[in-house]
Amino acid sequence: MDSIPVNWDALDSLVIDFAKSERLLFPDDLSSSPPASPPVSPSSSSSSSSYRSRLLIRQIRRSVEAGDVDAAIHQLRLHVPALLDDRRIVFWLQKQKFIELLRRGTERDRDLAIECLRVALAPRALDAYPEAYEEFKHLLLALVFDKDDQSSPVAHEWSERKRLDLAGLLSSILRAHLHAYDPLFSMTLRYLISVHKVFCCCQGVSSPISDLTERLLLEDKDPQATPQETVYEAPPFDEVDIQALAHAVELTRQGAIDSLRFAKGDLFQAFQNELCRMKLDLSILDKLVHEYCVYRGIVDGVSHSLPDFEHNSSRDCSSSNIECMSSKLSDGETSVNNADAEGVPESYADSTNIGESRFACEMIDNHENCSTSEVNHQETCCRRSRRSRNYAIGQRRRKRWRGRVDDLEYAAVDCVEDTVQDDQGSKKLPLSENMNHVDNHKYEVILEMRELASKGMAAKVVEEINAIDPDFFIQNHNLLFQLKQIEFLSLVNSGDHAKALVVARSHLAPLAAKNQDLMKPLKETLACLLKPCQDALTKGTPLPILASSLQVAMGWKLGIEEPQLMKIVRATLQTHNEWFKLQMCKDRFEQLLKIDQLKEVDSPLHSIPAAKASPDNYTNGSSQMTICSSSKINEDGSSPQASSAENICDESAIIKVMEFLALPRADAIHLLMQYNGNADSVIQQIFS
């Protein structure tokens, strides 16, 4: 299963939004003197409201799952009284309350259960919904059949599964009523994993991430919220919308219609309702997000205190490194200026770790490069060491991980959610094992190299990595070629063709001579000499891809594996591409979930647009015409082209076959291809 380029910056944005929406990060430090009265943006206010609503839904859900129906009713009456105007909901809650009173088994609770029958259930059974009275009479059997009797006609009513179903149904209704949808990243992940599972199942492909996806996305779903009977008079929906929803979230046609009715015909709201019914294991999701945030430098990793660092540094460095370390100590106060003078922006210097100098000395010890015979390498190590004191600044700029703290009382959320501090005993999830046992100073070096690469500072990256590990590019010659290619193109872009040719002769040509696969990229790179300067940079590897590839390669070299979330996103995006190639249409929901942005790799360099690895060019599934062909799908993902002639299938014919035969889109198209696009002929042949 080949991987595709992924826009990790777009994923960063989604993950950060998720972490903020779920209050997984601590608020920014107040010590930075914020404005006295900071303005409240509509988006932040909306996010805060959505969080409180989701917290309320979780609290009501837990109450019902625990059998405390009165607490759930109290919360509904207090915060969402309009929902209690729905007679169905009140009837369902009172039925469950009756069962819970009987479950307790005392005489007093039995009397309360009978009173519940008389006062609450019997009157509502007459007009809650058409089947309510029959359900009421059937429920009376619980008075005479024991809860432990699995063969009784009311065993289902006694089952704790009934609690879970009611709690899930209430969650679905409340979520739509309050527009309290899960963060976008959560929905995107659900959708990508579900498409991945369907693709692997239909194509008989073994999933490389099945161990993760099976634990993360649970098979169980919340019950579907159904509309009240008065909504059934709504006008019919577009069949294209019905089929799109049904196949996107694996519903029957009637299930898709019910979902659209509940959403009053809004396709995208119905889609979000259905996605949020899918259950994610939040503890696993939080751990994946935390691991990813540390890996990408979004949140703090393992911290080191300055005194402890200095003690360890002096202990770890050998006597041959005293000159190197003393240079660091003497110049520590001016390290920001030094970093900037060397061509590295202050932001890069800020991101380096205090422990980085110790790492530099360890590398010196290992390679014996601090001797007088290797002065240049010693100077490089010392220069990197001088920037180490800036780590404290960079560390403060990163977010601090708080973890999920959602067991607060809903009424108290407003006053505590933005003031919780470290000493309040917040829940903190551990990093994965590969993060726990990695020296943080090495990890910070990797982050710095990624930042340099993402800014196109290829020459600086090569110089620094060679100083750290001279063998790295011997084992990763493709990365060296791509970095030198960026350096070459930058020189061409600036008009310095002479230096560009020196780079090509010294690095690109020898690398291509050793690896014939690089010969074609070399020719394309050299061809940039013939083009205007402003077009030179369009041939280089997109910088986000190059920077992330460099980070992964350096991580493996130093014992840091890429986070599991990256594996999930890479694999699911690939199968998402393949699935919609098979369907011969464009995903109508990928823009809503920002899947298109995850696939869109755009790397501006020096404010000039770079090459854009655009997503596959699908035929639009909502358009009026779809190209059908008997040929295989092209490797580049474009719509299949017929070898001799193209048969044009009308979109309405495709939908008609899908509807009548309950077929996936791809199967409907293949059938139409056999009958020249005539839907009536296909249906007649199948039923004849």
Provide a descriptive summary of the structure in words:
The chain has 688 residues and is mostly helical. Among the domains are: 42-178, no CATH class; 303-397, no CATH class; 625-687, no CATH class. It has a two-stranded antiparallel sheet with strand order 1-2. α8 runs antiparallel to α13 (267-277), α9 (184-203) packs across α31 and α12 packs across α13. The longest helix is centred in the first third of the chain and has 24 residues, at 42-65. The radius of gyration is 31 Å and the shape is elongated. The chain starts with 7 loop residues before the first helix and ends with a helix.
Q: What is the distance, rounded to the nearest whole angstrom, between the alpha carbons of the first and last residues?
A: 41 Å
Low-confidence stretches: 29-41, 302-396, 409-438, 603-647
Task: Give the DSSP E fraction (strand runs of 2 or more residues).
Answer: under 5%
The gross shape turns out to be elongated
Helical content, roughly?
A: 55-70%
Oligomeric form: single chain
Structural class computed from helices and strand pairing? mainly alpha
What count of helical segments does DSSP give? 35
Please tally the β strands and state the result. Answer: 6
Trace the largest sheet across and list its strands. Answer: 1-2
Largest sheet: 2 strands, antiparallel
